[in-house]
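Case study B.
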Amino acid sequence: MAYKDEQLIEEKVFKDPVHRYIHVRDRAVWDLIATPEFQRLRRIKQLGTTNLTFHGAEHSRFNHSLGVYEIVRRITNNFADRARWDREQRLLCLCAALLHDLGHGPFSHSFEKVFKLDHEQFTQKIILGDTKVNQILKKVSADFPEKVADVIAKTYSDKLVVSLISSQIDADRMDYLQRDAYFTGVSYGHFDMERILRVMRPMDDQVVIKSTGMHAVEDYIMSRYQMYWQVYFHPVTRSAEVILSKIFQRAKMLYEDDSYQFQLEPTHFVSFFEEKVKLSDYLKLDDMIVYYYFQQWQEEKDDILADLSCRFINRHLFKYVEYNPDPQINAGMELYQLFKEAGINPDYYLVVDSSSDLPYDFYRPGEEEERLPIHLLMPDGGLKELSRHSDIVEAISGKKRTDHKLYFPRDRIQRIEDPDLKKRILDILYGKE
Amino acid sequence: MLDNHAKLLYFFSKAQQVPGRKKLQKMIYILQQCHVPFEEKYQFHFYGPYSEELTLRVEELCNLNFLTEKKEEKSHYHQYRYAITEKGITFLNQFEVNMPDIEDGIRILQDCSARFLELVSTVLYFSYLSREEIIDKVYTVKAKLKYTDEEIDEAFRFIDELRNRSSH
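Model:
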């Protein structure tokens, strides 16, 4: 039997708190899960620093990847008898779903910003490069790794296949919303996924939703909205992300300063500092390695690196105030100078964080073909964009969704010896101008 | 602080008006590919390279009243037109924005249709491939737009010209 058709003698199941069971029957899927590149995802937290706010959020990219695979498995089973569905695409969909986050690194959002990397490029490199994952995909067919990489990169010829993994109502989002809600313990993020899967229809270039299922989709959009503000954009998590970015930034700066000698040679980061990252270097990094360095860096001679690492390890985070760059821009600039006068380096200790600094997104009706929206399949066979039919989605789509916060170490300000300087800084921050 | 917002405002101050979200997305991407240091992250989407970060940043600039967003009705569709405000200019003047001269590039891009910019940005997205492979990709991912050989040749010529200008 060809490898692509090979089935396990007995179905394997993973117990899962979100989907109850994750079912694996295809030999190729089972073999992919066993690769070192996929197992590495066990050591990368799905939500990075969110566990500092919601202590339950310790789940990994491994959990999520299996979850996305399971949702796509259920969708392709539902589609099996639909005319538009090509059954030959089934294994491709399953493998792309399983591997879609393969290139994520530890704390990838902050890490990528500082080191100018893109996890999607690493996903491509792992799938197409000299890796165990690539060897297994090649056993399916010589061009299979490229097909899987194309689906994940959204450049595959069959857009319907792409839309299962990546669209505004895809398996990726349906899994992470429910999983993140479960592990953070919040009561938002729940929606009737079974209902959505039942009303999904394969059509031309996209999956559309039978109009009778609109209310289930409304719930899904609402849960996206609530999870964004309550979990993903939580100001305490953002504070941890700010510190994380500043640690990476400081370590890089010290590495570039020939006169500075690290007490612990930052071996795992050297290729990142030098911006010459090889795949083998990338695959060696995980949350544990990063935590090990942060632990050690608490004792570095450089005060800033030691202090920031200590703050991150001990959850001694920055405080924040709302910041409106329009009337407060001059105040921001004055603060920058006052921090300098107080001996607090503002490049590391005074940070504006904006909603656009985050990787999560809202539902967009795609009015000018920026993005493909969610389409409802109407009884007459026509398609209608979701927000034109749903008052709830229209209301959420029109809502103001941006904000800016100013982060700073209040404890350091409290320790400023000059009382006038301290008062001036606190007055600006807490609005006594 | 807010350097990326300032860079976008600099772009709008030079562009005066940008008609359409799609055009805006593609213009920033094309300039970025010509080494203008915009830092918005792009991914390939149904309609070519798209940056959610850019969309949200522009929304932030509108909410701060640094940009205006005007909805215009066209015959079969509508589009949003963006322009910098006095407040936006005042904000921008507080910054020392370290940007190359992009006025020429903006003018050239503004004269192009959104359809052509979608093609150019798609070609640029695959610029790590050979010319033949890029053409194959365009036919694969943009099958429905039915770009002609002449349009694709024109896109390659256009990119060469833009890159030559930006290197001088």
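Chain B touches chain A through 40 residues (CB under 8 Å). The remaining cases will be described in the next quarterly update.
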